[in-house]
Specification:
Blueprint (H helix, E strand, L loop, with lengths): L1 H9 L15 H7 E5 L4 E5 L5 E5 L14 E5 L6 E5 L7 E3 L8 H5 L9 E4 L19 E2 L11 H13 L14 H5 L3 E2 L4 H6 L1 H6 L4 E4 L3 E3 L7 E7 L26 E2 L6 E2 L13 H16 L3 E6 L9 H9 L11 E3 L5 E4 L14 E2 L2 E2 L1 H15 L13 E4 L7 H14 L4 E4 L16 E2 L2 H13 L5 H11 L4 H6 L1 E2 L9 H6 L23 H16 L3 E5 L21 H4 L12 H9 L8 H6 L1 E7 L2 E8 L2 E8 L5 E3 L2 E3 L3 E8 L5 E5 L13
Parallel strand pairs: 7-10, 7-24, 8-9, 10-15, 15-20, 20-21, 21-22, 23-24
Antiparallel strand pairs: 1-2, 2-4, 3-5, 5-6, 11-12, 13-14, 16-17, 18-19, 25-26, 26-27, 27-30, 28-29, 30-31
């Protein structure tokens, strides 16, 4: 058998001296070695046939498999090759470069930096207010002091709500009888003043957590606190950066976010507005410059990547193109940008929107599985603007990729077209789709490099306590299903537990028996909104330890590290209780249960020079044993084992004691006996912790 295999390989492969010119037959090489990622030089080796061994060209030692390992992952040095030879001799070895020839799109196109990254997600308006001069007020918001108790509703808030309904009745309502709970009357117009300057101020905090990448929820000009209702993709919202909006003499404050068609041109088909779709006429605002000149350089200097939220499915009612359609009807030059219907006089009668028919989020029109020409061209121009701000062909001054909102509501043809543009601008820009289901149809070079891995979140939060009947054995089955993609995709998946669209993780686990992201809104009955017990925070630490050990890229939703709790929107978007903000104001921050250091102690392991590469790039397996979740990772000659106990009973395994709601990580280097690397706060120690 081995003679036949060696003869076949030798026909295509050459000796080490000639290996730089080798061009092996991919079918033969791929049978034995599968490329995981080209630029990171990651390759998976099958266990060799009986009587044969693998060897690296940079080493005289054979590559050793453990008895239970069918596949071994290596990270090859530049110009390093692999050899397959008969045991007892190297004369018959055949050498090949596994990276010569074709590789899967995921192996070639997934940005190397995104493999095993640690993400930090920021909801800007509630993150940190470092520049009060740009705080949003009348008419679309009510300024609220950062330290004001969440449940407290002041008379000023009620008055603002009533006046807002009078001034803008088509947009806002007000219950003068106060039949609804007071908080519900005012909460969505609260503005706390978080801004990009606040993000700059907290960059060191983010890096101390172990994060290597930031995802900013929408920052483009919009009236809402969440900014998913874009009024202008061309600019950063002036209430999120800079010194606030600059109003011209003819633009009243209440219209600062509501550009209107001011006059109809002679042809009757266009209007003069404060906005143009012609990219050649665009300029930069002071708010734009905060992102470009302060946040991006500050992040990049710290080794942090930054991606923005791209909402290409819909805009807000204040978007100038839609305002033009409402004003001019079918005569508007933007009439075909939206799925709109007009009456016999050409007036706008109805439109498709993301939220409902004639809703607040008008959807762009699509034909043939892609956006129609007008909005598609506009989105392409916006993409170029933020990925290469100075337009010199060097994207280093721009953002590092995009997270794509409601990605499944835009056709796959569009995503393919748009992906090609993104990769033309910056081949290392990452694309992350918001998909609440398995994203396999969008991978393989078709649309996205990864997704917000909600399927994993469903499983892990079940296991952490959301579903009391969910077993470790079932988790293992779900992990097998979730991790079924190409290995490069698995390593790039954005692995989250909660987000700005779900209840806070602490409250999710403190309210078991509910479906993920269900029955937790303002009106939800029997939802415990108080701070959870310490045992819940033990489970949160356990969850982040498991995310650290699993393949993929863990994501922190800002505030989890501060121990925050709360139900679904709007309670999951409370302002962050920064101690250095609250304490000078005489306010004691809530007990964070030590979560910042507990989470960071795990996530920082991904940057450790010895075990970090294993956690970011290594092969993985998992199993259930004695009620424990066992995760094994391997890269080259380093192996890591995580033993996680979600139960309230102490468990033992192979001489190791794992306490209730605890987790222990062990590592073995070059075949040495396993040593403890790290353990959760309450785990019994298994000897001194050692990191090389």
């Amino acid at each position: 058998m081995r003679t036949t295999l060696l003869s076949a390989l030798a026909a295509a492969l050459v000796s080490p001296a000639d290996q730089t010119a080798a061009h092996p037959q991919p079918s033969i090489a791929n049978d034995q070695a599968r490329v995981v990622h080209v630029s990171m030089r990651l390759v998976d080796l099958n266990r060799p046939p009986l009587g044969m061994q693998w060897r690296r060209s940079a080493s005289e030692k054979p590559i050793s498999f453990l008895s239970d390992e069918a596949v071994l992952r290596l990270q090859l040095a530049p110009d390093e090759r692999l050899g397959l030879y008969s045991i007892g001799t190297t004369e018959e070895a055949v050498w090949f470069d596994p990276f010569v020839g074709d590789a899967a799109p995921e192996a070639r196109q997934t940005p190397g930096w995104s493999l095993g990254a640690v993400w930090y997600n920021i909801f800007p308006e509630r993150f940190d207010n470092a520049n009060p001069t740009n705080d949003q007020g009348w008419p679309h918001g009510t300024p609220i002091p950062w330290q004001q108790p969440w449940e407290e509703v002041t008379a000023d808030e009620f008055e603002a709500s009533a006046n807002r309904a009078i001034a803008l009745p088509r947009r806002y309502g007000d219950d003068h009888q106060r039949r609804r709970p007071p908080l519900r009357e005012v909460v969505f117009e609260r503005r706390y003043g978080g801004d990009l300057e606040g993000v700059v101020r907290r960059l060191d905090h983010i890096t101390r957590l172990g994060a290597t990448a930031i995802w900013l929820c929408p920052v483009f000009d919009a009236t809402s606190l969440h900014k998913y209702d874009a009024a202008d993709y061309r600019h950063i919202d002036p209430h999120l950066a800079g010194s606030g909006p600059s109003l011209g003499p003819d633009l009243a404050p209440e219209l600062a976010h509501e550009p209107v068609a001011q006059s109809v041109a002679a042809d009757g088909r266009s209007a003069k507005t404060p906005w143009t779709a012609d990219a050649d006429e665009w300029s930069w605002t002071p708010a734009d410059r905060v992102l470009i000149d302060r946040l991006l350089p500050g992040a990049h200097d710290r080794g942090l990547r930054v991606i923005l939220d791209g909402v290409w499915n819909h805009v807000g009612l204040q978007h100038p193109a839609f305002v033009d359609v409402r004003s001019l009807g079918s005569a508007s030059r933007y009439a075909d940008w939206f799925d709109a219907r007009f009456d016999t006089a050409g007036r706008l009668a109805s439109w498709r929107a993301w939220d409902r028919r004639n809703g607040a989020l008008p959807a762009f029109s699509q034909r043939g599985d892609t956006l129609t020409q007008g909005p598609r061209r506009h989105v392409f121009d916006i993409t170029r603007r933020w990925m290469d701000p100075n337009g010199d062909g060097d994207p280093s001054d721009g953002i590092d990729g995009w997270r794509l909102d409601v990605a499944n509501e835009v056709g796959l043809t569009f995503w393919s077209q748009w992906r090609a543009l993104v990769r033309e601008i910056n081949p290392q820009a990452v694309l992350v789709g918001e998909l609440w289901f398995d994203g396999g149809d969008y991978f393989g070079g078709r649309a996205f490099d990864s997704q917000m891995n909600y399927p994993l979140a469903f499983a892990l939060t079940n296991w952490l306590g959301r579903d009391p009947g969910y077993t470790t054995e079932r988790l293992v089955e779900d992990l097998d299903r979730v991790m079924r993609h190409h290995q490069a995709t698995n390593l790039a998946q954005v692995n989250l537990l909660g987000s700005h669209d779900t209840p806070r993780l602490a409250s999710m686990l403190a309210n078991p028996g509910r479906e993920y992201d269900r029955d937790a809104g303002l009106g939800a009955e029997r939802f415990d909104r108080s701070q959870p017990q310490p045992q819940v925070y033990d489970m949160i630490e356990l969850g982040y330890a498991v995310l650290t050990a699993l393949p993929g890229s863990p994501m922190i939703y800002h505030g989890d590290e501060l121990g925050m709790w709360g139900a679904d929107d709007p309670e999951n978007r409370k302002p962050l209780p920064w101690p250095d903000v609250l304490e000078p104001l005489g306010v004691s921050p809530p007990d964070d249960m030590g979560m910042s250091e507990r989470m960071a102690s795990w996530l920082r392991l991904r940057q450790d020079p010895t075990i970090g590469p294993v956690l970011r790039f290594g092969a993985a397996s998992w199993r259930a044993q004695t009620g424990l979740l066992i995760i094994a990772r391997q890269l080259d000659a380093t192996r890591i084992t995580l033993m996680a106990n979600p139960s309230n009973q102490t468990r033992t395994l192979e001489g190791h004691t794992i306490g209730p709601r605890s987790v222990v990580m062990m590592a073995s280097y070059d075949g040495t006996p396993p040593q403890q690397v790290h353990a959760s706060r309450h785990a019994p120690k298994q000897g001194p912790e050692t990191l090389r």
